[in-house]
Amino acid sequence: MNGSEHILAAFHRHNISTVFGYPGGCIMPLYDALVDDVGVEHVLCRHEQACALAAEGYARASGKLGVCIATSGPGATNLITGVANAYMDSIPLLVITGQVPSALIGTDAFQETDILGMTLGIVKHSYLIDDADSLPEILEDAIAMAQSGRPGPVWIDIPKDMLLADVHTEAPAPIEPAQPECPDISPALAMLREAKRPLLYSGGGVSLAKAEDSFRAFADSSGLPGVVTLKGIGNAGRHNLNDLGMLGMHGSRAANRAVDECDLLLVVGARMDDRATGKLDGFAPNARTIHIDADAAEFNKLRPADIALRGDLNAILTAFTDALANQGLVIGDWQKQCRTWHTTGGFRAADNEEPLAPITGPAFVRQLSGIAGDDAIIACDVGQHQMWIAQYYQFNHPRQHLTSGGLGTMGFGLPAAIGAQFTDRNRTVINVTGDGSFMMNAQELATIRRYKLPLKLIVLDNQCLGMVRQQQELFYNNRESHINLDDNPDFVAMARAFDIPALHIERTDQIRRGIETILAYKGPMLLHVAISREENVWPIVKAGASNKDMIDEPRKTSSRKEQVA
Amino acid sequence: MTPSSEIASQSYTLNCRMSQEAAALERLCRVVRVRGFRISKMAMESAGDSLDVLLTLEGSRPVAMLQSQLEKLHTVTGVELMSGAVARSRTA
User: Fold this and answer.
1) Is A110 a catalytic residue?
2) Which Gene3D superfamilies does the annotation name (chain B) (predicted)?
3) What is the b/e burial string over A398-410, where b = at least 16 CB atoms within 10 angstroms of the residue's CB?
4) Most buried of A66, A71, B4, B66, CB within 10 angstroms?
5) How many angstroms separate the CA atoms of A420 and A408, rounded?
6) Residues A154 and A192 reside in one and the same domain
């Protein structure tokens, strides 16, 4: 077998059945091998960035490894944003690129880039193949590494001659990732029992460790009030009464208040991101910290941990649950206080009762959440709509919420939704996007058409870059700078050009019918939702300020009726 | 612990043992830079399949944070903070 055939053999060994890619000069030997391989479905996206983001959406929705493929030079550089996105959110990704033939490396050959050098900061690890016989072992290492410990992207750059060369070695046995021993939780348990106002602060690490069940068992048995990061949304499920929702810059007043008042922060799979903590000096100022994570480098990075527990989250959370089985925590007053805060300071969606009134983002998302069902996957982009989804959509599981957390990549949503749809063609997958983000990867409408994906697309169109406009309004003396998008194309006509039927709505009384129509339609459909340009995301904490200094929406006098999410 | 609490730059010496792989040294230097340290002196010696790199660094962030980030590199097999490494201190 040659190098290309060994790559496909590795895919088969690891049950990799779907890959996302775009062919070109130096990767052509691999594409030639794909012609004869019926066991691997290759999804042709229309831009390499979308290949990486679709692979990521596939990985996020399924918990499996995502795979993307591109050629050298521009193909490889186009992958970079998607791979950086995966790195920031710790998504397991195998990236395979063609490189110019070995003899031409370093000669500024056609479509040569030093992609290994360019991407050192956005990969868990990377390889440049200089010996075809090393390829089988490197493939095994890369596949194992991408998924083990704290997951992340691993990049293999393969010169064209290595793809064509006969390989004289066999793949080693698949690597079983070593599980770290469960650390002694006794000191942490004692600290937890001593606390009067303990708070559970969980993030994306829970689902990355596939520890959702262990987390819920612990959350239920401990009764701890909890806050979540953007990536932790859904950790506690839809019906946990102690879940106060998202904390941070656009978190709820209840969540941020609980963090401010707690005396113990039990951090599970979260990395104290600045969007979550606000000004660090003001974050949980009276709390001791127990930090549980798979990655030791997260301990003490931004906030000192009184106790750090490194290991498999499943094992650690189960140990806590077992330990609490005989004697629970005595935190009834604190639970009651947090629930009161949730009632008075949860996210408040203003439902406009006037049927002809313009649609607001929060009101739309609340209705979508009620109609789309417990199982739908929502892939959103970046901006105001992303925060409205985080605030008002009631997720039952973190893998239903595909969002670009760390990198904040506009254009993430559509390709991520495509990737998610490939995990299950029959599942409801909805891309909720804004007019700015939608245009960043709109070429992928062609991918939807090609593969006849039943994706639902919802464009919340405020004719501007809403989040930037909002910050310019609030923090830059309302000096609007290059946020105007009122020359957007006709999105309905644009969708139809790709054989995707589309609807336009703009009034409150059209929301339900619009959502129900696109969900009932058997194929892909786009719902274009005109919303007010002036709507802001509330509450908001100014970047660099303390979370307790959050700014609420100014009082409005209208017929709006507030509802707590 | 935080960047905002940085007040003084200190000098440290780290002994890093690495495997000989493509870009191993680049990866090491990149992490040092991104995590807020400056290399003031570097000595490298090849020993079979390994590289021993002695780094003298300056920075105002906790060196333990850098150490744990370097240990994450798959080319790094060990990082040792040399005892008595705080050579001098100055106000940033």
Assistant:
1) yes
2) 3.30.70.260
3) bbbbbbbbbbbbb
4) A66
5) 19
6) no
Residue A483: domain span:
348-538+554-564
A20: CATH: 3.40.50.970
Q: Do A124 and B62 touch (CB under 8 A)?
A: no
- Choose the final residue of a domain: A295, A314, A344: A344
List CB contacts (< 8 A) between B4 and chain A: 280-281
* A331 CB-contact burial (10 Å; exposed 0-12 / middle 13-18 / buried 19+): buried
Instruction: Tell if the CB–CB gap between A281 and B64 is shorter than 8 Å.
Output: no
Same domain, A35 and A116: yes
User: Residues A384, A327: one domain?
Assistant: no
Residues A103 and A191 in one domain: no
List pLDDT tens digits, range A187-217: 999 999 999 999 999 999 999 999 999 999 9
Residue A514 host element (H or E): helix A511-520
ipTM value, please give it. Answer: 0.91
Point out the residue among B26, B64, B74 whose CB comes nearest to the CB of A300.
B64
Q: State the count of interchain CB pairs (< 8 A) between A and B.
A: 43
CA distance A377 to chain B (A): 33
Give per-residue pLDDT as tens, A242-256: 999 999 999 999 999
> Which residue ranges in chain A fall short of pLDDT 50?
557-559
- Give yes or no for A303 touching B (CB within 8 A): yes
Residues of chain A neighbouring B69 (CB-CB closer than 8 A): 297
Q: Which domains does chain B have, with CATH numbers?
A: 14-83 (3.30.70.260)
